[in-house]
Amino acid sequence: MTISGRVMDMEAREVSLEARLVSGGKPNPWQRLQITFAGSAFEARLEASAGGWYRLEVRALMGDQVRAETEVETVGIGEVFLVAGQSNSANHGQEKQHTKTGKVAAFNGKRWQLADDPQPGASGSGGSFMPPFGDALVERFQVPVGFVACGVGASSVREWLPPGSRFSNPPTIVSRVRQLPGGEWECLGQAFGVLSARLKVLGPHGLRAVLWHQGESDANQKDPTRTLPGHLYGEYLKKIILNSRRASGWEVPWFVAQVSYHVPGDEASPDIRAAQASLWKVGLALPGPDTDALKAEWREANGKGVHFSGAGLREHAARWVDRVAPWLEQQLK
Fold first, then answer.
1. Boundary-marking domain end, from 38, 54, 76
2. Could you report the per-residue pLDDT of 6-50, keeping only the tens digit for each?
3. 129 shares its domain with 219
4. CA 160, CA 209: separation in Å to the nearest integer?
5. What are phi and psi of 4, to 5 degrees?
6. What is the rounded distance in angstroms from the CA atom of residue 256 to the CA atom of residue 85?
7. Can you state the angle between helices 230-248 and 270-281, rounded to 10 degrees?
8. Single residue among 76, 96, 121 that ends a domain in this structure
9. Do 68 and 100 share a domain, yes or no?
10. What is the sign, positive or negative, of the torsion defined by CA atoms of 58, 60, 66, 67?
11. Mean pLDDT of the chain
């Protein structure tokens, strides 16, 4: 883990720093840190075993004398996932979910908090799949799990493109795009800006993967001119993935779910589903769950809605576990 801070009222070149983790009231030995100073600001790395929650204790010494001490409660070393897409990747489920293990956290771009719904950083004020998904990973891998949510309800893949990206036909909602004088449309880039900013804050290898759950707002729109052909969906999502990797500075893995369900009778778009699967076939993304298979019994409003019921959110979480956990086990070998 990276430890950063500031040493006040002491000459930095005369200070040494030590740190340790405390678990269950039992402290680990103090470790002398290799420090990089910039004025009074410092940065160092502490090697430690995965797990938590820990308490982190840091002390500054001059010679053999402890001159300052501080601590940070609730520190974990575990798994982090960024979740993006539209409403079913955000807080639009029928029932708010809560972490049962107490070891699932959420990040809003500035600070971490317990990952009880609604998730910070994503649209909506209802429930999400993240607390039960995180709890299942905590129980399976015995480490804390963190989520960085930035899903936007009703968003098209066109609205997630980098700023300045152009396309001929607009999405159904046009608040995040604009029409150019020649008739083309252009993405303003707000959603991609948040996505790339979160990736930059986490830093290279600071997360395990991006989980993408989106497609409803590109499939089978009431105005057929707003429906996105599958080959363009695949092209645009490819552009988002490649540009996110460029912004983050490393080849961050992406899971792409199969998503195009609206309501009973409009339960899938083969065109959009094929586009999502095409990214797996070329190795650009990993297979996420098929949530079109979650029919009316799992949906809100007694099965009449596009969003998930409480039971549907928990089933959604279980299907993400089925995809992510076996892959994660391979990464840990």
1. 76
2. 888 777 778 899 999 999 999 999 999 999 988 889 999 999 999
3. yes
4. 17
5. -135, 155
6. 10
7. 40
8. 76
9. no
10. negative
11. 96
Q: Which two tokens stand for residue 52?
A: 């938590």
92-95-100-102 Cα dihedral, nearest 10 degrees: 40
Rg (CA), the chain: 22
As for how many domains the chain has, the answer is 2
Q: What is the pTM of this model?
A: 0.95
Task: Kindly state whether residues 115 and 9 are assigned to the same domain.
Answer: no
Query: Is 114 within 8 Å of 135 (Cβ atoms)?
Result: no
- State how far the alpha carbon of 269 is from the alpha carbons of 159, 275, 312, in Å: 19, 10, 20
311's enclosing H/E stretch is: helix 310-331
Q: How many CB atoms lie within 10 A of CB 283?
A: 7
Whichever domain contains 235, its CATH number is: 3.40.50.1110
**Contact predicate 187/165, CB 8 Å:** yes
**Averaged pLDDT for residues 292-312:** 97
One domain, residues 279 and 176: yes
Are 313 and 236 members of one domain?
yes
Statement to judge: residues 91 and 67 lie in one domain: no
| Length of the chain measured in residues | 333
Residues 6+ apart with CB under 8 A from 204: 248, 249, 250
Nearest Cα neighbor of 307 from 172, 108, 117, 102 is: 117
Amino acid at 156: S
Residue 294 to residue 306: CA distance in whole angstroms? 10
Note whether 39 and 151 are same-domain residues: no
Residue 19 shares a structural domain with residue 147 = no
**Residues of the domain holding 129:** 78-331
User: Nearest-5° angle of CA 47, CA 53, CA 55?
Assistant: 70
Asked whether residue 276 carries a pLDDT value surpassing 90, the answer given is: yes
